[in-house]
Amino acid sequence: MIVVRLERRVATPRWIGVAVPVASVFAALVLAGVFFVLTDRPPLTVYSEMFDAAFGDVQGVKNTLVSATPLVFTGLAAAFAMRMGLYNIGGEGQLYAGAIAAAGAALLWTADLSTPIAIAVVFVAGAVGGMAWMLVPALARALLGTSEIVTTLMMVLVADVVLDYLISGSTSYWRDPLTIGFPQGKEIPDAAQFTRWFDARITVALPIAIVTAAIVWFVRNRTSFGYGQDVIGDAPHAARYAGISERRTVLVTLLVSGALAGMAGAAEIGGRIYKLEPSSLRLGLGFTGIVIAALARSNALGVLVAAFFLGGLRNAGQSVQAVADLDLPKSVALMLEGFILLCFLGGQVFSTHRLRIVRREPARRARASAGASS
Amino acid sequence: MTDDTTVRPDSGPGAPVLAATGVVKRFPGVVALDDVDVDLRAGEVHTLLGENGAGKSTLASVLCGAYQPEVGTVFRHGRPVELRSPRDGLAHGIAMVHQHFRLVERFTVSENVVLGDPQLGRWLARGAIDDRVASVAETFGLPVDPRARIHDLSVGQRQRVEIVKALYRGADVLLLDDPTADLTPQETEALFVTVRAMTAAGKSVVFISHKLGEVVEISDRVTVMRGGVVTGQVARVDADRHELARLMVGRDIDLDAQQFAAGSPGSPCLIAKGVTVRDGEQTALDAIDLEVRAGEIVGVAGVSGNGQRELADVLAGVLAPTSGVVEVNGQPIRSARAARAAGVAYVPEERLGTGLAPSLTIGENLLLTRRRGALVSRSAARRDAREIIARFEVKAPGPDARCRVLSGGNAQKVLVARELAGDGQAPKVVVASAPTRGLDVGAIEQVRALLDDARRNGAGVLLISEDLDEVLAMADRIVVLYRGRISLEADRASADRGAIGRAMAGIA
What we know:
The complex is a heterodimer.
Chain A: E1 2-8, H1 16-38, H2 43-56, H3 58-82, H4 91-109, H5 115-144, H6 148-169, H7 205-222, H8 224-234, H9 236-241, H10 246-273, H11 278-281, H12 285-295, H13 300-320, H14 332-347, H15 349-352, E2 353-359, H16 362-373
Antiparallel strand pairs in A: 1-2
Helix pairs in contact in A: 1-2, 1-14, 2-3, 2-13, 3-7, 3-10, 3-12, 3-13, 4-5, 4-6, 4-10, 4-12, 5-6, 5-10, 7-8, 7-13, 8-10, 12-13, 12-14, 13-14
Chain B: E1 18-27, E2 30-40, E3 45-50, H1 56-64, E4 71-76, E5 79-81, H2 86-91, E6 94-97, H3 109-114, H4 126-139, H5 155-168, E7 173-177, H6 185-200, E8 204-209, H7 212-218, E9 221-226, E10 229-235, H8 241-249, E11 268-279, E12 282-293, E13 297-301, H9 308-315, E14 323-328, E15 331-332, H10 336-341, E16 344-347, H11 362-366, H12 378-391, H13 408-420, E17 429-433, H14 441-456, E18 460-464, H15 468-474, E19 477-482, E20 485-491, H16 497-504
Parallel strand pairs in B: 3-8, 3-9, 6-7, 7-8, 13-18, 13-19, 16-17, 17-18
Antiparallel strand pairs in B: 1-2, 1-4, 4-5, 9-10, 11-12, 11-14, 14-15, 19-20
């Protein structure tokens, strides 16, 4: 008789950190393939079209980098909190708040500024906006222990309504008074519109995203603050024992997480949309950030890789719509993203456990059970 | 015992009531039992003696059906049996009393006793059950009220409930896993009376322990284990503490040297005045006054749960007292940081989870209480970890091993080394809570030597321990904590075991 058992690993080997995400992606492709087969679309064709669109040529890679840029920020936002056991589900809302603040600051102050200072204004404003949106959930969590999962998610709904109100519900400062018909946001000054490089929408936001990831990595791994996060995430009693303030660490961590998501909003305003435009912002970038953080196992450098990959998936989703004989909606990307997250979460068990196949000796069993019945 | 595992023990009337041959049990990364043979005769107390991780609890779990051996056979009255669960074991009259009791706190004694009893019908005949429970209890000298609720009972009483439960179900083989760990000396004596009553009635007891003194007192035979193998078996008549210790540890241990020379106390370095800790209605500490002088060890004896944890936490600044003050060399202690800055080292009772973060590596855990700037160097911590692993013979895969995978003794070595031998800066005050509990003889020696070194280097040491022998061997002064108050204070010279035992039990 053969029994398959899950056994706890004594130590997690390093290769597991790479093998589990890769295997999860593969499993997700197989599962999603079932849907393609059922709807008469050859899965391999779909996947090769998608791969070509995202990574197949220089233009594809450029577009992928463009899609990945805001995802790096939202991914870092989720990862920064997740590694100490906090779940910022509201990156989407902080992104909107960051976009509102970035657009407002750009309209107010950047008209006469030089480009580098205007870029700084946009990003700082975005960070402040995201942080402000996190303030209530962070205080509630740090002081009252209220679940940040619930509060950050609820704040997304609030941000969504505010966004609509500013553009279509009122004649706010953000709205362009000159448009007739469909209400639009006011375009930000030229100085605040990031220059496009390489014939694509690649902008200064990309290097800023990479540098931010490096800074986050440094804070997590080389500073006393990051060490305190590790201790609190693992053993709150040990933190109390060592005099590490859980309240302060939780507060700072959540605020920084909000700021990072707000920077994604700034990158979108300054690098792609140039005005506060609800429909252009509502891409679920904040939510995808959570998937990225999970795939990267909360590692800041892993976020860069995962954001590139999921950016490619989004990019492919856009392109695959254009392939006439496949007749696929772009939400194919979201479906795949969902499958990947599910498979990854399921696959997590293999980083702490391993499968063991046990062969039982049939003769011994027979003898022993004969003994028991006698 | 024979080395030839294919030979079956005799069956028939003279056969051992319970035996196991050639037992192999592996866990990921370790062989817990490697070809172990053991047998138990009717009416005997057979002790499994060994250090932590020797495999004695695993062997007991195999004997009661909680674990299934990969190789090897369990025999009941000479016939092979397969025990697939503790329930199977109980059906064969084999019951285990675990170190951590498995009782429902809100239930009465009787309710716990009949819980899961397959004989129990649809209706609870409370009166009849209570009477039967009381009569079983009385027969074996286990005074316990069938109608009392578990949460009102002391540790010793709860243990009696577990034993009554086994006897009520008709078990005639009882496996007691480290039964004296949490008992006062008086409760231990009472337990031994019960054990003798059971064996007199023809029942057999497997006694699992690592305490040499009580093993010699209670056992008819002793099987000594080390590293998953049996290293020796001796009948009580031959039992010699030194020989047993040698079999257990694998080298000679000088038991008598465990008495430490008294310190030469200087001026007070740790002072607590009127320290009171209240949590809602509960008073954990009630106006404690305590003074520890430089260069002395003050032993705090008492059964756990009488305020030890709170006292240690308050003195180390981790817990703010409801009222009262703590001072270290004149500096008030109001936070863990302040305590650290004043030179307080603290070995907490709970090692994994409080003293050590389980998922962090050994190196990272060394950073926990070291003074840290804005930046931390994990590579320096890794170097320190390597040094500690080498110096204290910590059994670990390396400095990057997570503390969770260390055995209790090795984790404690890391923790104590960090607190007492770290940083090049000797601690001025040491608060150590149960620093050797559950450790094997070798580790105990090392931990005690470190505490003694701290005393010699002029630190004031507060040693909180349930092990009265340890307190008597090490402390210059002894206080007994009972229900949040100091019920006795004595110098080492005038300390009287009986009086301390009574003070621990709250008998004035």
